[in-house]
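Fold this complex.
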Amino acid sequence: MMTTMDYSVTIILCFLLCFGKVHCYDGRLEERDVQMAEKSNENHILKTVSQCFHVRGNPFVTLYCGSNHMIKINRAFHGMHHQNISRCNFLPGDCMDGDLSPYYDWSNCLGAEHCVKSVKQSWLRECGNYSKYLQIDYQCVKNEEVFDICEKSNTYVTEGYIKSPNYPSFYPIHRDCECNISVSGKSRMLVSFYDLLLEMNGKKCADWLMIYDDDYKDLNCGEIMTGMKNVSWQGPQIRLHFHTDVNNTRRQSFSYNTQRNLKGFWVYFNAEPKDEVLVKCGPTKPKKLQSYTPNPIPKGGVVIAGTASTLPRGWSFTLLLMMTVLY
Ligand SMILES: *[C@@H]1O[C@H](CO)[C@@H](O)[C@H](O)[C@H]1NC(C)=O
Ligand SMILES: *[C@@H]1O[C@H](CO)[C@@H](O)[C@H](O)[C@H]1NC(C)=O
Ligand SMILES: *[C@@H]1O[C@H](CO)[C@@H](O)[C@H](O)[C@H]1NC(C)=O
Ligand SMILES: *[C@@H]1O[C@H](CO)[C@@H](O)[C@H](O)[C@H]1NC(C)=O
Ligand SMILES: *[C@@H]1O[C@H](CO)[C@@H](O)[C@H](O)[C@H]1NC(C)=O
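Structure:
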């Protein structure tokens, strides 16, 4: 855990940087962001779709990755141009808003091969106008890069993904599976939640994903969307345990009163600095928990598991800075 002292130092530093020389996000995006969205490397196919709200008929966008691929949304935002331009995509200098959670439910896109979304319109407070277009930057992740927590594996990777069986469809009931992920060196491990929808019974977890090491236990259930939570682990080994009960509930009501299909989970992991990670997964014995209350998602979404004294500043600092830049 980071101490309060640590937090304040990091936050103050961050503010200093933002109001000082370094460019800070001010409702506009710069050229470099566009280039980032268009950049592609051999592992990840990056794609962009956009559409205006005011077009003839029903405005919509189609996200398409095709068979054996999974959609991961990197960024979705509403925007408007400052001039009267008839383009329906982002241009440098545009005013935009990236918090679209009240307007869209991305659940049927995440992990899917394709999906369609109607374009909505929102009031862009910072721009003093209504949005003109919706743009989504997404990525197609190959199925083969994603470990199924219930399937036996014993593999070295530098980064990877773990999902529940059948994700993005309903997961099997009455199961216990685990993945051990470990590094040999001094690297830390980072786990980013892409998608998680697991059954709750009131405020307690009925089905759950617990990530833990000797010092820290992180229990997850309910709803976690892309970008909402990152956990940084000290290493050298962390374990992920997935448990489902006998209850066959397949849908549940979540935030904004949306009924969502219980899809299971999809997480990303890597080692920082880059290192080989050994991934061992498969079925396991049921695990008894002391408490079934999920760990709350901290404000800002970053959990640092481990002690502050041994934790290099760089990582949490980078995360905080990234958050400030992104939001
Ligand atoms: C914006 O431009 C279009 C033609 O490009 C024009 O029809 C429309 O009236 C213009 N709107 C405003 C508010 O100037
Ligand atoms: C909002 O956008 C419309 C059309 O682009 C423009 O005519 C209007 O002046 C804008 N309103 C404000 C408050 O900027
Ligand atoms: C199954 O889950 C639903 C909703 O959480 C609950 O109302 C019901 O009592 C549960 N049934 C059993 C057998 O646990
Ligand atoms: C994970 O590690 C524990 C001990 O650290 C071991 O008992 C367990 O069998 C391992 N699980 C897998 C799937 O390798
Ligand atoms: C989690 O990390 C990703 C990059 O891996 C970043 O885009 C995202 O904003 C982070 N989320 C939080 C809540 O810090």
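Residues 178, 180, 239, 280-282 surround 2-acetamido-2-deoxy-beta-D-glucopyranose (ligand 4) (CB under 6 Å).
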